[in-house]
Structures are given as C-alpha cells and as structure tokens.
Amino acid sequence: MAQTDLPLDQLRAYRPSLPEPEDFDAFWEKTLAAAAEHELAARFEPVELPLPGVEVLDVSFAGYGGHTVKGWLVLPAGTREPLPAVVEYIGYNGGRGLPHMHLLWAAAGFAHFVMDTRGQGSGGLAEGATPDPVGSDPAFPGYLTRGIGDPHDYYYRRVYTDAVRAVSAARAHPLVDSARVAALGTSQGGGLTLAVGGLVPDLVAIAPDVPFLCDFPRAATLTDRLPYREIGQFLKARRADRETVFRTLSYFDGVHFAARGRAPALFSTGLEDMTCPPSTVFAAFNAYAGEDKTIEVYPFNDHEGGGPYQQLAQLHWLPGKLRT
C-alpha cells in the first residue's frame, strides 16, 4: 500500500475545523457523574499460572450503568510496595485474551491493568469476557454505528465511560501508586487513550498508537477499510441521517479530547495506514493541548505502525514519566 494521504509537511500542519457540540463538556460531566452513582466495586481475584515472574489478578469493576467490566492486573512477582501503573485499552474487536499475552509492562517493573472492551472479543485473536447488555436501533454490523442516532445511546458513550472507570479501578488496588498512572493503547485502544487523557486530568502520561476514533468526517470519506467504512455503509442505506450521525460522532471525536489533554504524550502513525489514515492521527496530535508531545512517524508502515519498534520507544520514554 503506497502513501495515499497528505504529504508529511502538510500532515504536520493539518488542523481540520471540526464542529464541537456546545454542550460537549456538560455531556461528559453528566455522563461520568451518572456512572459515579454506581459503586466501583473493583474486585481482584488471584489467578494461578505457571509464570513465576508475575502475579496475575482477574479484575472486575462497575463501568457505565453499573455493568460489570472485566480486566487483568499483572504485577511483577513479589511486589510489596505500590508501583506506577500502565492502564491499557484494546484494539477493535479484541478482548482481554489470556494473561500471558500481557507481560511487557510487568517485565519493565510496572503494574499493568488491561481493560476488556464490552461486547467485543469474538472476531480477533483474543477473546473478550465483558458483555454489553444495552440494545441498539438498526446498525451496520460492527460497533461504530450502534445507537448512533443519539449521543446518549451511542455505544462508545458506554465504552469511554468504562475506560475512565478502569483508571479508578486500577487505582483501587493497594499495590498501584494512584498518583503515577499512565494510559496507552493501539488503534481503538489509542482512541480510548485520547478520550481518557481528556477526561482524567491527573494522568502522568498517555501513549496513543495509530489512534482510531479521530476526525470522523475525514476518516469516513477517505478510507474504504473497516471500521470507518461502517459509517459509510450505514449512511448508504440511511441517506437522510448524515447530519444526525456526524453530530453524534462529534461528542466522541478524539480531536476534541486531545484539545483537553495535558499529560505528556507519545503518539505514533504509519504513513501507509489506510485503517486510521495519518491525517486523522495528526488532527488529534496537532490539536493536543499538552506542551510535552511527540509523534513517531513510520513512513512505510500500514496500521501496524511501529509495532515492536513503537513498544521499544515507549519502553525508553514512559519510565521517565512514571518514575518522576
């Protein structure tokens, strides 16, 4: 796949004019306040595994609507004092999978909290364990158009709220240093990272890799790949709903959350990425309000972005933020 988006010099200057709802902040304040009415009820059950280097806990907590959300907490073996923590969000249609899939950050000496994504985890390589008990109006298969007729009913309202509550759940464990928590994720996980970075003001760092859920108007018309293509397929049948759809999506656009983020941030993008086109990533990066921000650019990579090279970049960058 050749580079099909804007040239790099134009990407670095790309700042789309995206309408932001006047009640954007009020919408999220009310959403999170309603979630806070439910007890967090974070539970951590030890899991016996033949992995002597780590201790694994099966996590459950109350997310949006008090619904149970699952996760893993992976700690370096023998942890006795609170550690800085990395909260990770998962890519589209992935689940939390099995604990041995999440050893990197514990190996680096940190607590690692992995949030399962409600309703997902049956179409990728890793299974999920969290149902989404909320129904939906007619939608195109996938998650991106579920409840898209109204921001209050939209699927990602629930997921973004779960993601914020996951930070609280991680902080609830006595071996997590609640003052030193970072968030990261790839693709959908990167989009959730941006949302949490805009909604949780005291994170010490965020690292969104090739983030999804950014600059919806451009993404929906630039790429024919899923998941963004779900929007076009939905509107192909529901021709009169375009204005409603993009108004709903404006409450969930990573560009708006980026404009509220202040924590040090390490982004990444692949210039041949047709799943999350680089212009949509740069839209969020250029809007990011924090002064300490960097983007790693991989000119000949698609949606895998930097892959292990980006993980290595994080391993060099993130400890300096978590250990200060």
User: What is CATH's topology name?
Assistant: Rossmann fold
- What is the terminal-to-terminal distance? 41 Å
Largest sheet: spatial strand order: 1-2-3-5-4-6-7-8-9
Under the CATH scheme, the architecture is 3-Layer(aba) Sandwich
Short recap of the structure:
With 324 residues, the chain is of the alpha/beta class.
Description of the molecule:
The chain is of the alpha/beta class. It has a single domain, classed as Alpha/Beta hydrolase fold, catalytic domain (Rossmann fold). The protein contains 11 helices and 9 strands. A 9-stranded mixed beta sheet has the order 1-2-3-5-4-6-7-8-9, with helices on both faces. A hairpin with a 5-residue loop joins strand 2 and strand 3. Helix 4 packs across helix 5. The chain is globular. The model has no long low-confidence stretch (mean pLDDT 97).
